[in-house]
Amino acid sequence: MFLYYILAAVAGAALALAIYILVSRAASKGRADAIIEKANLEAENLKQQKILQAKEKFLQLKGEHESFVNKKNNELRERENGIKSREGQLNQQANELNRRQHDLDSQKGQVNALKNKLDAKLEECDRITAQVNKELESIAGMTAEEARKMLVDNMKAEARTEAQAYINDTMDEARLNAAKEAKRIVINTIQRTATETAIENAVTTFPIENDEVKGRIIGREGRNIRALEAATGVEIVVDDTPDAILLSAFDPVRREVARLSLHQLVIDGRIHPARIEEVVAKVSKQLEDEILETGKRTCIDMGIHGLNLELVRLIGRMKYRSSYGQNLLQHSREVANICAIMASELGLNPKIARRAGLLHDIGKVSDAEPELPHAILGAKLAEQYKERPEICNAVGAHHEEMEMTSIYAPLVLVGDAISGARPGARREVIESYIKRLKGMEDLAASYPGVTKSYAIQAGRELRVIVGADEVTDEQAARLSTDIAQRIQDEMTYPGQVKITVIRETRSVAIAK
After folding, report:
1. 467 DSSP 8-state letter
2. Where are the alpha helices (DSSP H) in 307-422?
3. C-alpha to C-alpha distance for 228 and 275, rounded to whole angstroms
């Protein structure tokens, strides 16, 4: 019984589930049909819209195509009309050419007829000429070839005579004009070049404020002034001249070092031997820098660029060197300007001429190979520092000590002669004086153990400083005698020369 109830309940539940499923399917189908119907309506509307848009696009493209076709048709009609017009012109030109060709054919016939007549006339002329030549040959007694040869020989002789006369006249005129032109160029060059008069100056005046400063410069028992003279090689003259001390030396570089050193010492106030040596060394270095700066300024002023730095330094050293009383730097600048002016007058490159003129005396300020002539040494230096071959030759040949291969060499030779030979340019006395003093210093420096040698008091005294470690007191005494004997045997000098050999021992210790 209980089982019956259970089965009944299961059957009822199954029936209820089947009814629920049937009802749910019926509801779902109704909704699906509604959705499908709505989608069909929307699809139909979209279809109608797309069809309308396609028709509008088609109509638009059709209009554009018809417009394009009409435009192309118009262009084709215009081209067709142009071609027809051109065809008409060509037909007209062809007719004109045919007419001209007919005229040319007619003229050609006339020309042929005239040519035939001309040929007949020429044959008749040749016949008459031959007959006349035979008659002339019989009258003259020579053939036409012999007469022609005689005429040519006579004309050659006459032409040769006239040509020789013309050549002689031309050469005489060229020599006369060349001499006049050369004189004009040299005169104009001299007039356009500033000149200076040589001054024999071996003394520099150093101004001081009072006698107290003079006493400090002298030092206790003259030790300061002796230290300054030993360090610079300059004779310092302290006399009764008010407010001044004289610095005497033949070498301008030494005088400048002494002047600048004294100036710094007086300003600083500390004047003693150790300080003097320190200041002299510092000033010597500063002067080297100033020499280089002088060379650079000179090159800029002269418009010369690209020089090797060593050549620039040698140019700066010219400021402190004189040749027969003429300042070497001013002389070189003057020669450079003269060469540039003459080169411009002759149609040459004035920059190359100015460069060669400025460098022509660099051999005088070089320390290398002093036994060579300064012109040859200058050419070697210019070649060493990559100057152009024509410049090197001009430098080396300006005293005709080597063959002139450059067209600028004669300009430098003439420029050097003009600058040195003009009135007031040089004085022989100062140059020979400087050479004598320099020779005395070099003679003393040639001995072993000599560290420095200075000619002072206008060459009346030679101070020789030797190393204490290399030369003993006895050797120093013999050295002074040997130097005096060599000067007496090898050199020419007025009066007497005093040789002073200084041997100094220094002991240095540092307190820490």
Report:
1. E
2. 309-317, 328-345, 350-359, 374-384, 389-396, 409-421
3. 10
The domain locations on the chain are 1-104, 199-300, 437-504
pLDDT for res 351: 92
Question: In sequence order, which residues have a C-beta less than 8 Å from that of residue 248 and are 6 or more positions away?
Answer: 202, 203, 204, 234, 235, 236, 237, 255, 456, 457, 458
Torsion region of 288: left, alpha or beta (phi above 0 gives left; psi -120 to 50 gives alpha): alpha
- Give dist(CA 501, CA 512) in Å, integer: 35
Q: Which of 398, 401, 412, 366 is nearest to 385 (CA)?
A: 366
Higher pLDDT, 174 or 299: 299
**Amino acid in the structure at residue 464:** V
Report the CATH number of the 437-504 domain. Answer: 3.30.70.1350
The residue type found at 215 is G
Q: Give the pLDDT band (50/70/90) at residue 504.
A: confident
pLDDT in tens, 382-391: 999 989 999 9
**Structure tokens belonging to residue 506:** 């220094």
How many Cβ atoms are within 10 Å of 212's Cβ, its own excluded? 9
Residue 256: Cβ-neighbour burial (10 angstroms; 0-12, 13-18, 19+): buried
Residue 461: count other Cβ atoms within 10 Å of its Cβ: 16
Q: What is the mean pLDDT of the chain?
A: 79
- Please enumerate in sequence order all residues whose Cβ is within 8 A of that of 478, keeping only pairs 6 or more positions apart, or say none: none
What are the pLDDT digits (tens) for 468-481? 888 888 888 888 88
Determine the CATH number of domain 199-300: 3.30.1370.10
